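Lecture 7 notes: from sequence to structure.
We start with the chain below.
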Amino acid sequence: MRSLGEIIPQQKYTIDKVRISLSLPTNDADRFSRRCSQLFHTELKRLLERVLSRIDTGGQTLRVTRPLIIDLGKIPAGTFEPTFCQQLERQLTRTLQQLVSKYENEDLSEQSRFDFVVESSEVLRNIEKLNELLRINPQLTLAKLAQACLEYRGANQLYRSLSPSKLKEICQKWVSELEVTGNLTPTTLQLCAIHYCQERLKLELPELDITDSPYSAYEKQILLKVFNNALDTKGNKHFKANWLIKLWQRDPVREYIQPQLSGRQFALLNKEMLNSAGNKAKDEPWESISNAGLSLLWPFLPSLFRQLGLLKDKAFLNRETQLKAASCISWLCEPQAEKRDYSPLPLLMCGITEAVPPEPMALEEETLSFLDNWLKGLPEALQGKWQKLSPEDIQQWFLQRPGFLTTVQQPVLTVTSDSFDVLLQDWPWPVNIIALPWLEQPIKVVWGSLE
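Predicted C-alpha cells for the same chain:
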C-alpha cells in the first residue's frame, strides 16, 4: 500500500497505510473490483488531501501510532462511489477532529510521550532527585515513574526508596479518581502505574508480571478500572491485549472481576483467550460450538416438550426424557445430520451439565414426524419478516450459527454476529438470555451484533 507521502508532494501529512475492506456478494465481486480500482486511484487521493488540509493541529506535530478504524456501514450498490466518498470524508474528518481535541486537552505532550518511553528507567537511578524532578516537570516525571513501575522489580525499588506518604501521593496522582486507602505494597504501585500508562499515556502495554497475593480493596478497585478501560476502548473484533489476557487468567483476578463485567466484556475476554496459544489446555473454559443460534428457541421449548410428553409441571419426568429433549433440540438445528452426538448447548439447555457427554438417544419416527411438522409451522408462529422465511432459512441463517459456550461460574453463550441479525429487531422474545423453568440458573447470551 502506498503512503500518502507518495501521493501528495507536500511533506505536510504522511499516512503510512490505507486499508479498505469490503463485503460483497460473490456475483458482484468482479464488477465492484473494477469500480473500486478506479475510485481508489483517483478520488481517494484528493479526498484524503482535503480532509488532512482542514485539520488544525495548532502548530503541533500530531502522531497517530494506532490504526484509525472507520466503519462506513452498508452502502447502496447504485450510488456506491459518491456515497462511499461522502461517508468516508465526513467520518474521517470527525474522527481526526476528535483526536486533535483529545490531545489538546492532555497535559502531557506527544514529544514527552516518546521521551519518557526511552528514558523511563533513569528516574529510578536518580531516586534522590525525585522531589526536584516532580517539582520541575511533574507530568513527565510521573510518566517515567509509571513506565518504570510496570515491572514488579521497578515497583519494588520505588516502594523501598520512598516513604509511605510519598508513595500515597504518587498513587493518588496516578489514579486521581480513587482515594488511596490501606497499606501500599509494590503490587499497589504496579497496578496504579498500569492504570496511568493505560488511561493517560495510551500505551500498548507489554506482558506483565503481577503477583497473585491477596489483593486489597483498593487494589481490586484499580483492577476493575483497568479491565473496564481496556474493554471499553478496545471492545471490538480488533481487541488484542495479551497483558490483559494474562491478567485475566489468574484465578484471584478473575474471581473478583468476572461478576463486575458486562456480558459483552466477559465474552470478549474469553473469546480472545480461546484464540490464544496458551489456552489449548484441557481446562479451557470456552468451547466452540456450531449451533449457538438454538438459544432463540428457548421460549418455545416448554410447550414443545409438554406436547411430546417429556415434562410434568416444570420438570422432566426422568433422565430418559431429559436426554430425549436434548436430542430434539439438536434435531431442530440439523435434521439431516448423520452423526447425532450431543452438542454442549442442547445438553445445557436441558439441564445436563456432567463433564462426560452421555450416549446420544435415537428419536422414534413418530417424534421425528412431530418435530418436522412443528418446524414447518415455526415461521407462522413468528411476526414481521420472520413469517416470510422458510424453516430452512431459519436453520441456516440463525440456528446453525457458530459461537462459544462456557459454564465456568455462570453459563454464558456468545453468538457470532451476521448481517441477518437485523431481523432480530422483530424477534418478540429476549435474545440475551435462556430462561427455562428446569434450569438452576439462566444462561446469559451475547449476540455480537447487538452489543
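Points to note: Confidence is low (pLDDT under 50) at residues 1-11, 107-120, 234-239, 277-284. The radius of gyration is 28 Å.
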